[in-house]
Amino acid sequence: MKQNNSVTEFILLGLTQDHKKQKMVFAIFFIFYLGTVLGNLLIIVTIKFSQTLGSPMYLFLFYLSLVDTCFSTSTAPRLIVDALSAKKIISYNECMTQIFALHLFGAMEIFVLVLMAVDRYVAICKPLHYPIIMNRQVCIILIVLAWIGSFIHSIARIILALRLPFCGSNLIDHYCCDMQPLLKLACIDIYVINLLVVSNSGALCTSNFVILMISYIVILHSLRNHSAEGRKKALSTCTTHIIVVVLFFGPCIFIYTRPPSTFSMDKMVAVFYTIGTPFLNPLIYTLRNAEVKNAMRKLWHVKITSDSKK
Q: What residue stretch is flagged as signal peptide (predicted)?
């Protein structure tokens, strides 16, 4: 990657400089990351091999779990390793790569959540047309478009990052590379670039959050015409999605819709949506979804039975 400065590496300050707390950070986030990977892989395998989870909702859940795993992997392993490192050095190229991955998978998570809301809207508000509107081919096309949109967003972000010149301090007061902490190190007037960052990530988060909330309000309003059983099932699904949306979008909007000023809570807020939310998603979707739990039981029952016959 072409450098627009003389800096070849950055030093991440991490979550804490206290050695005892760093050991706690290592233990806590190692468990979180392990749980994230195992939980999301369990959902991926269950949906992949289950014969009962073939609807578009579970196709989108499959990609949400896949993206959650990649999204968490873009930050968590470095945070875990750096917790035991005396000097948390990251090269310029690694820093730019991390920014690209962070925003590629972050944007993809946003788009998948939007697709899940669209799926629920069609299923509840247009039930007779659902098999036609949300057929397999349409869903695949929507996923491909989501990847393309995420790639364009990430490319725009990395172009802005590569234009930043660094000629002074290389200390990043964060546990990962992102535009907000990097802007504070740039030795140029960052007003215009920050406006572009806010209009890029900030607008992406805020506009999609508003769209999602409006869609769920419409969905919940339409449930008054459904039977009690149908209403209960739809409410359970929509409540799950709303919880995930709020947990992910709340911290994102806080981080990306304001100037690059430092708040004491910034790093913990970032931890919540980059590591916490991917960890919670498998728990939310399995604990509140009877179909996923039943599919998991059947899958493991078949696996155990087949192994015992060998």
A: none
